[in-house]
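It is worth pausing here to work through a concrete case rather than discussing structure prediction in the abstract. The textbook approach is simple: state the sequence, then state the predicted structure, then interpret. We follow exactly that order.
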Amino acid sequence: MFDIDKWIEIWVAITKNKTRSLLTCFGVFWGILMLVLLLGAGQGVKNSLYVQVNGFATNSSFFIAGLTSEPYKGFNKGREWNMRNRDVEIITRNIKDIESISPVIGSGRGEKNIVYGELSGSYSVKGLAPDYFNIEKQHIIFGRLINNIDLIEKRKVCIIGNKVNEVLFHNINPCGKYIRVNGIYYQVVGVVKGVSKVSIGGKSEESVCIPFTTMQQTLNKGDVFDFLAVSARPGSQIEPVIRQIKSILKAQNDISPKDPQAVMVINISAQFKTFEKMFFGIDFLIWLVGLGTLLSGIIGVSNITMVTVRERTREIGVRRAIGAKPFNIISQIMSESLVLTALAGMLGLSLGVFIMDWIGKIFAAQQGSDSLLVDPNVDIKTAVIATVILLFSGLLAGLIPAWRAMQIKAIDAIREE
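Step two, the predicted structure:
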């Protein structure tokens, strides 16, 4: 049953020395506040990174033709080679775990290389296959994306980034109009904005994309392209796909199977795993620092409770002498410690959540800029864990003083002045 007299007694014992109780509570309050702020800031940084890469396939990789480092089949080392359309066909036919594959050609930025009427700008030009938009997703503002018919018929069509559209067409729908790209006219069929902040070969907002077969023809490249973008099917690992693609490329282009640098690979999946490991380390450090600060506050509670037990030696002796059970003494001391810890901790937890919510609103209000923190918060799971740790720490803080109280002999306590 709930004993109101017991809790009144606990409250009287805590408020008897208000200054000491407040200073004791401050250590716990500060410890849990720092833990919440650190966890919220860490989550905000993680959210910021995930916002930057949202829309980019994390299980993707890019292949680039490098120089051979070993002689093979009569070829000297240091030989240049190129990936060709036939390589894509063989890779697609033989590797079943590939979800999307796209050859890519880049021409870089030229001086005023994109022109519409009297308006012009310097932008990146990329030749792509439709599958590329499954790897680097785009938000369609006007029109459509490049499709397979554009690729097969080598149509002179293009899609432009929203910043290109802003400069050349002042943000109106440009679909159906013609722009001059590196001296050749293309019909605009779409305007896009990159979902992800990550991009390969130039930002989507400042790029012009055309079918890679059209770009091969206009640049007189034959069937050669610059690099290959590939993503694995959901649930499949990208590493086996990378090994198979490298093996096929080497076999098709007379490169030694043991050559370590002829096929250069940018493994996006591995980079994301590196980020995950880094964040795990940050989380571990945050918990270590936060719990260390909280522990110092808990030790303070325990020490003050020990002092309180010493001051109440005579009281405890009298209670023992008139028949108080050991459980009554232990629960009294541990309850006082738990109340002190819980009050201070809950106040620190609440204030920390309020501060992180306030900071999140400030960063969210910074429109048009990349925020360092995105939705910095402490999720319910973390809050529950912190609360459990807090309450357990409160009980632990009262355990040693309670044990000390049980060691007091009734006759000795009554004699003490």
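Step three, interpretation. The chain has two domains: 4-54+273-415, 60-267. Residues 4-54+273-415 form one domain.
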